[in-house]
């Protein structure tokens, strides 16, 4: 696609209509946000953490919408929640973990097809350290590198110990662990010159401790100077998520590893169905490994239909029964 065939006006992106991609296959992902599930089941959002009746009601309520969109209904799961945990002798007896495990067991009794997960497992080492110390952590590598390393080792090993304990409890084994993702949004606050000492070694250790056969990374504050470390770490897919600075254009030019694309929630809110289709095509021209989007309210069903239509077209997915009515 040539640059003169793309026109951008504020949030709306226009692409000339003859630019449909017909010779490539563009994978995509689509999902439903917890807010939509709660809305559909007329339940408070926090009920999705442990109220099994509310969880089942919400997931059953969204089935007709999923069928209208031509997608598989989501499997019931406990909503994600990040817990501030210290290193105990037995993670399964700590904090809210027993309650979450009990809620999962009750959910599995009602819905055996539910995801075997109690929610978000861990944050990356830098983000965990920042959550524990606050902004003071980001001066610690300058003032006391020894203590900074000690804290990062603790954050890395405690995350691995917790995740492995949960996996062994839910799955019954630790190896092989398959693809592993690390979410570490605060890591990019540290300058690239410090990454080789204070970030990359701890990411590498966490991937190793979790038995990763494929390495995925989610981080929203990385800049071009950080990106070479992703190649050294053998990252299979980099997700910049909602980072508005690291654009698909920049990533295509500077990122040494495969990256993902995303249609953001505000794009879904602010754009028309036609504009969303044009935006999706524009992202696709930079060849991300996948383009993700999701619904956060039932009010945008028409927009989800439009995006699924173009996503299926570019993925060469045959599903002609779910086209928009023009």
Structure described in brief:
The chain is 43% helix and 11% strand. The protein is of the alpha/beta class and 326 residues long.
Ends apart, CA distance between termini: 26 Å
Question: What is the CATH topology descriptor?
Answer: TIM Barrel
| Biggest sheet statistics | 3 strands, parallel
CATH class: Alpha Beta
The structural class is alpha/beta
Spatial arrangement of strands, main beta sheet: 3-8-7
User: What is the strand content?
Assistant: 5-15%
The helix tally amounts to 14
Domains (count): 1
CATH 2nd-level architecture: Alpha-Beta Barrel
Tell me the total number of β-strands: 8
Radius of gyration: 21 Å
Q: Roughly what percent helix?
A: 40-55%
The SSE order reads EEEHHHHHHHEHHEHEHEHHEH
Q: Identify the overall geometry.
A: globular
Report on this model:
This protein is of the alpha/beta class and 326 residues long. It has one domain (3-73, 123-320): Alpha-Beta Barrel (TIM Barrel). 43% of the residues lie in helices and 11% in strands. The strands form three sheets. It has a three-stranded parallel sheet with strand order 3-8-7. A three-stranded parallel sheet has the order 4-5-6. Helix 10 (228-232) links the parallel strand 5 (214-218) and strand 6. The longest helix has 27 residues, at 145-171. The protein is globular and about 55 Å long.
């Amino acid at each position: 696609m040539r640059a003169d065939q793309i026109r951008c006006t504020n949030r709306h992106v226009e692409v000339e209509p003859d630019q449909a991609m017909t010779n490539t296959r563009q994978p995509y992902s689509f999902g439903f946000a917890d807010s939509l599930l709660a809305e559909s089941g007329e339940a408070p959002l926090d009920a999705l953490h442990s109220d099994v009746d509310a969880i089942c009601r919400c997931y059953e309520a969204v089935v007709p919408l999923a069928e209208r969109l031509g997608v598989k209904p989501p499997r019931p799961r406990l909503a994600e929640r990040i817990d501030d945990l210290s290193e105990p002798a037995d993670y399964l007896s700590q904090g809210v973990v027993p309650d979450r495990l009990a809620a999962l067991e009750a959910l599995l009794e009602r819905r055996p097809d539910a995801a075997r997960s109690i929610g978000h497992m861990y944050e990356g080492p830098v983000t965990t350290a920042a959550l524990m110390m606050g902004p003071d952590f980001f001066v610690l590598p300058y003032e006391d590198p020894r203590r900074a390393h000690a804290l990062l080792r603790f954050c890395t090993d405690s995350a691995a110990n917790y995740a492995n304990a949960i996996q062994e409890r839910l799955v019954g084994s630790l190896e092989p662990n398959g693809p592993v993702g690390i979410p570490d949004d605060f890591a990019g606050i540290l300058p690239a010159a410090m990454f080789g000492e204070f970030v990359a070694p701890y990411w590498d250790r966490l991937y190793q401790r979790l038995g990763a056969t494929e390495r995925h990374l989610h981080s929203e504050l990385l800049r071009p100077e950080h990106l070479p470390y992703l190649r050294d770490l053998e990252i299979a897919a980099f997700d910049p998520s909602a980072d508005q600075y690291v654009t698909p254009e920049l990533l295509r030019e500077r990122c040494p590893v495969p990256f993902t694309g995303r249609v953001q929630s505000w794009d879904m809110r602010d754009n028309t169905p036609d504009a969303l289709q044009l935006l999706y095509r524009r992202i696709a021209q930079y060849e991300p490994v996948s383009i993700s989007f999701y619904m956060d309210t039932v009010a945008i069903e028409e927009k989800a239909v439009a995006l699924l239509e173009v996503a299926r077209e570019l993925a060469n997915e045959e599903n002609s029964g779910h086209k928009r009515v023009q």
